[in-house]
Amino acid sequence: MKKNILFIMNPISGTARKAGIPGLIEERLDKEKFDYSVVNTMYAGHATEIAKEAKEKGTDIVVAVGGDGTVNEVARSIVQSGTALGIIPCGSGNGLARHLMLPMDIGKAINLINRCEIHSLDYGIINDNPFFCTCGMGFDAFISMKFSEAGKRGPVTYIENVLREGLKYRPETYEVHDENGTHIHKAFLISCANASQYGNNAYIAPQASMSDGLLDVIIMEPFDVLDAPQISIDIFNKTLDKNSKIKTFRTKKLHIRRDRPGLIHYDGDPTMTGEDVDISLIGKGIKVIVNPCADKTKRQPNMMQNAFSDLFNDLHSIRMNLTKQSRHIQALNQYLLNKIK
Ligand SMILES: Nc1ncnc2c1ncn2[C@@H]1O[C@H](COP(=O)(O)OP(=O)(O)OP(=O)(O)O)[C@@H](O)[C@H]1O
Fold first, then answer.
1. What ipTM does this complex have?
2. Which residues lie with the beta carbon below 6 Å from any ligand 1 atom?
3. pTM assigned to the model
4. What residue ranges define each of the domains in the chain, with the CATH number in brackets?
């Protein structure tokens, strides 16, 4: 029997035009296997409503055609159901699609849907908000807010925001309760990862797995400008867990209390919450079309890494110049002192 698929397309995700996508679906999708329809979202939150209706009608697969925001809106409606999630990555970050190593090429992503390999994977919940990639608070929630305020989409905006705001952000104090007890952390950010990356191949939790039944918790302690180059390199080299400013552990759930209400984000979507934040993992709670040929070793850093490296190289050369200048001044002082003597 044929499976039915609903493609939910977010026309404003990412930066590329979506006009050609319905034609490509018609051309590539295996009509022997599938009946399909395509619907555009009209407003933020619409994908959640459409996907919920589709699930209630018993639709076999709902495909999110968009970025992590669209994936989140679709996926939250079909958790714990027989309806599976497909992804055609068209966003600016595409963190979940990249983690799953789905093709970024739309035609190839449709070919993968034709193969229809479905696995049950984990997802998380932060204060009643499901997330599939990462959630967090502190600097990354702040950046999510800045990004959504910016109104433009695309990696360049994201990079600009990170670079502009990153170096002035103030760390907060968090009380973290998990299965092993309570610890106080002064932190720049706390991130909980179901999948390994924020998007754009920026790896916050290089070892995170969507089928281990655990969240990877990353606590980034305050750092100064001299630590920043190494942290940025580690984010893209998938070695962040080895950095001395980073504490990582795995857990099924945790409770975080902070001094005052503040922002959290789920899959990059910012929202205000109170002092208390509950985060938990639901094991194998969502069916997802995966890439049976995924080769994790092929995950590559990208342009964002280059932008970070450029910025921090600039800072490094400024620092070197300052050091050089201060050495000149010291030498000059010494020379003058010798003269006076
Ligand atoms: N028709 C629409 N008009 C305005 N906003 C929409 C519409 N449809 C969906 N949205 C909102 O657009 C937001 C951004 O979409 P999405 O996250 O898919 O793209 P992105 O931000 O470019 O990609 P990524 O999250 O991968 O960086 C979503 O949070 C969604 O709520």
1. 0.93
2. 10-14, 41-46, 66-70, 73, 91-94, 153, 199, 268-269
3. 0.82
4. 3-116 (3.40.50.10330), 129-287 (2.60.200.40)
